[in-house]
Amino acid sequence: MAHFNPWHDVARGEDAPRVVNGIIEIPKGSKGKYELDKESGLLKLDRVLFSAVHYPAAYGFIPQTYCDDKDPLDILVLCSVDIVPMCLVEAKVIGVMQMVDGDEEDDKIIAVAAHDISVNHYNDLDDLPPHTLREMQRFFEDYKALEHKHVTVERFMGREEAYRIVEKSIDLYNETFKAGQATQDTPQSAGVEL
């Protein structure tokens, strides 16, 4: 029996790569690492973070995208209110954080909630308060340290590079999952790794 899967059955957004739909898995401030279970489409608790850190922004993925790590493209969404898990949010792309997790490239798109007047005036990373990017970098470099895993934030880049990365993930999704075949052909791993 076919079932709804947020990764494959939710649109990525009519104005992608500039404005995309983000599906939030982890609210800002959480120590719980939630992720989409690829097979069931439900949200599952992968683990509680080992370190005394918490997510610096709402965290999730862009539907109908695919990356070399076999997961959809990750997104961090800045918003003045807490965004609950599995909430769909229109997000204006303003940049990207490029990092290496273990030996794999793991890009994180940085965006602002399009319908939040407190943040939607930000158009590029240079517009953000400087501490915002430092906090993101520190979190991602520290959050796996007590698991004896190494993460390196290589660099932050602006919106044009972020657009290119979103477009690349859309192309890879379209190549990997033929129209109408996405749900049946999904790699059956335990969950979307963040």
Automatic annotation (TrEMBL):
Biological process, per Gene Ontology: phosphate-containing compound metabolic process
Reaction(s) catalysed (UniProt annotation): diphosphate + H2O = 2 phosphate + H(+)
GO CC, one annotated term: cytoplasm
EC number(s) given by UniProt: 3.6.1.1
Record's function text: Catalyzes the hydrolysis of inorganic pyrophosphate (PPi) forming two phosphate ions.
Keywords: Cytoplasm, Hydrolase, Magnesium, Metal-binding
Cofactor(s) it depends on: Mg(2+)
Residues bound to substrate: K33, R47, Y59, Y143
InterPro entries membership: Pyrophosphatase, Pyrophosphatase_sf
Subunit: Homohexamer.
Family: Belongs to the PPase family.
Compartments in which it is found: Cytoplasm
Keyword Transmembrane helix: no
Organism: Hymenobacter lutimineralis
Descriptive protein name: Inorganic pyrophosphatase
Pfam families, alphabetized: Pyrophosphatase
Molecular function terms from GO: inorganic diphosphate phosphatase activity; magnesium ion binding
Residue positions binding Mg(2+) 2: D74
Chief location: cytoplasm
Residues holding Mg(2+) 1: D69, D74, D106
Gene name of the encoded protein: ppa
Entries under CDD domains matching the protein: pyrophosphatase
